[in-house]
Amino acid sequence: MTDTARRPRPTRRSWAEPFRIKMVEKVPVTTREQREKAIREAGYNTFLLRSEDVYIDLLTDSGTSAMSDWQWAGMMLGDEAYAGSRNFYHLEEKVQQYYGYRYVVPTHQGRGAEHLISRILIKPGDVIPGNMYFTTTRLHQELAGGRFVDVIIPDAHEPQNEHPFKGNVDLAKLKSVIEEHGAKRIPYVSIAGTVNMAGGQPFSLENLRAVRELTNKHGIRIILDATRVVENAYFIQQREPGYEHRPVAAIVKEICSLTDGCTMSAKKDSLVNIGGFLALNEQDVYEEARNLVVVFEGLHTYGGMAGRDMEAVARGIEESMDDDHIRARVGQVYYLGNLLRDWGVPIVLPVGGHGVFLDAKAMLPHVEQEHYPAQALAAAIYVDSGVRSMERGTVSAGRKKETGEEYRPKLELVRLTIPRRVYTQAHMDVVAESVYFVHQERERIRGLKMVYEPRYLRFFQARFEPL
Ligand SMILES: *Cc1c(COP(=O)(O)O)cnc(C)c1O
Asked: Cβ < 6 Å from ligand 1: which residues?
């Protein structure tokens, strides 16, 4: 045998990044004692930690991504006119070009758009079916007097089920919701790309087409939550027959063409620190939104964003649609997910588009759901390594509007969310090693009791104490 034949050979091709680092930011390195004190002071809620006490911040991918030099250059071209900023027209052009909707209303972030569309389309007593709830989306539907009904396929509630499109709508269920309530009580069906609460799971175009056909029959709109639709489109390219050679941008356009409008948190896919928009095809709904945005966000040519921020969104949209970018983005998430999976840590499968979701129920069977196992697990990981994650389980699910009882979601998860273009592969190794270590010691983790509970979106500000 020759020397070269004996050398180890790689078994895979790397997902490597299509960029290099031009500026760095120092991150704090803390001791275990400091972290124990910090989490106690934060009421065992990672949302209440100071970022100064966090080493690797995987709380969220929202507004935490790194902008490119091209986006930063655009920031210098901000036109801060109160009305008619050129950056608004650039943003409008990019939304029309890449998402394909006719009308664009800028908002300060995603929930601003959700607020507007909910207020305009939902009447008290209405029902809004959706492929699993999202916290702010459902809250705005409820505040407008509506009620959310989950119509995602049952596979989405099973962490180990490897269905390639766990974000799909259960058509039979949607049909029965329409029969039960009547189309007049359903202002729209709410469809999210890579469903966050299910672990970042995509829908297929085949499924969306079927939803479109059914809703067309009844004259019901589809409003897309486009927050992570580029990631969803990437999964379609990778998994759905017939799409393997289509650019991600073309798939995004096709998805949007099957819907009537979208709400967008540009803080995710679009690679900015702040921003969002509502995009629509119907002129009368648009006119109402353009009027209401003035009341709640700002004039219809800035909607709560500075001109420079709109420029960063316009450029971010373009960068987000690049196939090399999205392959590396999801590739990094898969790198972390595969490490954990290979080491026997229970995670939601398939690995999601924006993060790795730990199955806290499987990891901590000795902690009752009423004692918030996912919340306790997130706190334990932080204490171990300074890695900040977040709870996506009972605390996030909140209480039922009618009875005040806590929801008991099937999924009790901890989300390790990866910001785009921010951390290195070595950082991912540190995260995996810490989660592995905590998993080895899992029997020592005890549950929590809630000692302070805010009325809305309690997971952001609730406080806990160990049992
Ligand atoms: C973040 C998010 C929102 C809300 O957007 P914000 O910019 O945080 O207001 C809505 N839907 C999904 C799926 C999200 O992830």
From this structure: 62, 109-111, 134, 136-137, 192, 196, 225, 227, 265, 267-268, 276
Going from the Cα of 105 to the center of ligand 1, the distance in angstroms, rounded, reads: 16
Which ligand 1 atom is the nearest neighbour of the CA of 62?
Answer: 1
> Is the separation of the CB atoms in 150 and 192 below 8 Å?
no
Distance of CA 293 to the CA centre of its chain: 24
Q: What is the pLDDT of residue 7?
A: 73
Mention every residue, 6+ apart, whose C-beta is less than 8 A from residue 40. none
pLDDT tens for residues 30-39? Answer: 999 999 999 9
Backbone angles phi, psi at 404, to 5 degrees: 80, 0
CA distance 458 to 462: 6
Question: Per-residue DSSP letters for 412-443?
Answer: -EEEEE--TT---HHHHHHHHHHHHHHHHTGG
Q: Is the pLDDT of residue 433 over 70?
A: yes
Q: Give the Cα separation of 424 and 211 in Å (integer).
A: 39
Check residue 2 and give its pLDDT: 54
Find the DSSP H helices in 14-109.
32-41, 69-75, 86-98
Q: Which residues contact 70 (CB under 8 A, 6 or more apart)?
A: 315, 319
Check residue 200 and report its DSSP letter: S
- Nearest Cα residue to atom 14 of ligand 1: 227
pLDDT band at residue 4 under the 50/70/90 scheme: low
Domains (range + CATH), the chain: 16-54+323-466 (3.90.1150.10), 69-320 (3.40.640.10)
Q: Cα–Cα distance between 238 and 233 in angstroms, integer?
A: 9
Partners of residue 280 on adjacent β-strands: 103, 261
Q: Which residues are catalytic?
A: 82, 134-135, 225, 268, 392, 459
pLDDT tens digits, residue range 357-382?
Answer: 999 999 999 999 999 999 999 999 99
Q: Ligand 1 mean position to 435 CA, how many Å?
A: 26
